[in-house]
Amino acid sequence: MTQTNAQRPVPSPTPADVQGWVVRGYNLGHVRQVICTIHNPEPLRTFLGRATNGDPSTQQIQSGEHWGDVKPPSALNVAFTYTGLAALGVPARTLAGFPTDFSHGAPARAIKIGDVGDSAPDRWDAGTDDIDKVHVVWTIHGQQSDDIDAAWNKLAAATGSSMSVVASYDGSALADNKVHFGYVDSISQPHIESFERDNPAPDKQPVAPLGSFFLGHDSQFEDVKFDLPTPTEFVGNGTYNAFRVLEQDVFGFEAFLRRAAEETGRDPEWIAAKICGRWRNGNSLEQYPDHQGEPADPATRNDYGYPDADGSICPIGSHMRRANPRDAAIVQRAANHTRRITRRGMPYGPLIAPDQEPDDTPRGLLGNFLCGSLTAQFEGVQYDWINLGLQHPSITGTNDVLLGANEELTSRFTIPMPDGPDLVLSGFPRFVRTRASTYTFLPSIPGLRWLANAAM
Ligand code: HEM
């Protein structure tokens, strides 16, 4: 990250200026994320020009503007890797201004963020670890899978042989916004300055400054704007995304809950709540310390902090408290609220039924973690906090149970008890394996127009 410099100022973005899913969840039930290689930039640039010309009769990149009461059948967004921008003809002097997390790309950062062992790049889906092939990620949300097919077919017809597909992933929402492992998700999201709140679950956390999601503006760190390559017409108001295909060992997780329940004499649902920080019905432990209760009012269920300094209500090592410590006392005191990320996720694979026999059907999450700095936000959460637990001495050296890089020999999760010794769960493996990971840049809508017209 750099201090402010003398570049042309970036105008504050309006919803029409930015790619829509940075600022709001679409609530369309299906998604397809397609990783492609660019072979010939010209047809692609022509497509980008048409897709940002505001003509509703042609397929447009979805901006943050509201579509009103009638949802469209599909919504298209696009993001590029560093090598993808080069393949599109972005000049070397512009490329040179991007930060190294993005320019090195996800495979090079794997060890840092815990993509090791079975999650290492050489175990990812074929081609997805090859930065010379991974250029662009298209994201199409749709009301139905047929709507996605129709949008993809149009895009493929318009771009012809200028691209080839490296990998394609389809996800669909599960009932009640659940994700695999059985938890309700998509409750807590940051509120970005000057944009409407993105979800109906308000909280009292500070509003995220524009620069923590859009390049060119004051970030969450005093006097710091994140690296802003020139020209600012292209890069300004752009956002980074860590797109991760995360395979979940659902049967392994359920078996662990049952074992932990037997060992501790507790209810498996209580163990599941302590691991996440929310009961599986979405209620937070802070608001429902002893029982899960009926699903709470969406207007209040996210409005809480962590007054229990010892973690006796919500364990300090729980997924949510690690990923966003809110107002909790942490070692890196100045870091509270500075690593907020917007999460856009969609599960893939069918939900398991209670007592279902294990099968080999792939299940997991298409996870997108949007931010203004991959290092300061996504990696800071994933590396320092989810793995390592550097925010609190009592969990340092341990990993998140839900998705950390755990090994049976060393894994440990402490549940502090209000009146009695801590409960310690151990011997659990890693439940989430990385199948693919890309670091991409989502240009603003004017940035996409610049790519269409002015790159090279
Ligand atoms: C398969 C993988 C994952 C699962 C099953 C999972 C599950 C969940 C669930 C159930 C919640 C609570 C719902 C909510 O408050 O919206 C949550 C919250 C959250 N997760 Fe994850 N998650 C996963 C991966 C990740 C990753 C990779 C990150 C970041 C590196 C992350 C960061 C967060 C954050 C920041 C929150 C919100 C915390 C808050 O605002 O209080 N999660 N996750």
Task: Report on this structure.
With 456 residues, this protein is an alpha+beta fold. The chain has two domains: 12-246 and 437-453, no CATH class; 247-338 and 364-435, no CATH class. It is built from 13 helices and twelve strands. A four-stranded antiparallel beta sheet has the order 3-4-2-5. A four-stranded antiparallel beta sheet has the order 8-9-7-12. The protein has a two-stranded antiparallel sheet with strand order 1-6. Helix 2 crosses helix 13. The chain starts with a strand and ends with a helix. The relative contact order is 0.19. Residues 1-5 have low confidence and may be disordered.
Write the layout of secondary structure elements.
Blueprint: E1 2-3, H1 20-23, E2 30-38, H2 41-50, E3 74-80, H3 82-88, H4 92-95, H5 100-104, H6 110-113, E4 136-142, H7 145-159, E5 163-172, E6 224-225, H8 232-235, E7 239-248, H9 250-264, H10 268-276, H11 319-323, E8 342-348, E9 364-371, H12 374-386, E10 412-415, E11 423-426, E12 432-442, H13 445-453
Antiparallel strand pairs: 1-6, 2-4, 2-5, 3-4, 7-9, 7-12, 8-9, 10-11
Helix pairs in contact: 2-13, 9-10
The protein binds protoporphyrin IX containing FE.
Number of domains: 2
The percent of residues in helical segments reads 10-25%
Q: Compute the average pLDDT.
A: 95
How many angstroms separate the termini?
A: 26 Å
Q: Outline, from the CA principal axes?
A: globular
Radius of gyration, in Å, reads 22 Å
Tally of DSSP helical segments: 13
Biggest β-sheet: strands ordered side by side in the sheet = 3-4-2-5
Can you list the ligands bound to this structure?
Answer: protoporphyrin IX containing FE
User: What percent of residues are in strands?
Assistant: 15-25%
Oligomer: single chain
Low-confidence regions: 1-5
State the total count of DSSP E strands: 12
Q: What characterizes the major β-sheet? A: 4 strands, antiparallel
One letter per element, helices H and strands E, the order comes to EHEHEHHHHEHEEHEHHHEEHEEEH
**Pairing-aware structural class of the strands and helices?**
alpha+beta
